[in-house]
Amino acid sequence: MDREDPKDRQGAMELTIEVRAKSGKFQELYQTFQALLPLIRKEMGCRDCRIYQDVDAGETFYLVIHWEALTNIEHYLRSSTSGALLGAIDLLTEKVRVKIDCNAPWEGIEILKRMRRENREAFRE
Question: Which of 2, 22, 91, 98 is the most exposed place for a label (fewest CB within 10 A)?
Fold first, then answer.
């Protein structure tokens, strides 16, 4: 079965990022998410943004952001807020999975980094 490219999809999109904090970094990751949530919610096209903690795996968080469209995710990825989020994920987490849209397969953080690079380069042209 062929995987649908999110860029081919129209309409509302859900971005889910699952992260597991590195040992001793739980509180710092939690505080970083608390600081970033209000900024993400102000981004153009953000309908809702929530952070959930896994009750079984206590140091695992799910950041779920509902966007009006993929173009809003792409715009967000050019922002300094997304740079801060990706930087915090690199520094404070040991496991990361990303899903763009609820029916998409889980992927690594590289998909967001790649989209960020591609969008930044296209924006400069």
Answer: 2
Q: What is the pLDDT of residues 79-100, one digit of tens each?
A: 999 999 999 999 999 999 999 9
Q: Under DSSP, is residue 108 helix (H, G, I), strand (E, B) or coil?
A: coil
93 burial level (CB within 10 Å; 0-12, 13-18, 19+): buried
Domain boundaries, the chain: 12-124
Tens of pLDDT, residues 48-57 = 999 999 999 8
CA 3 to mean position of chain CA atoms = 20
Helix or strand run (H / E) with residue 73 = helix 70-77
12-124 carries CATH number 1.10.10.60: no
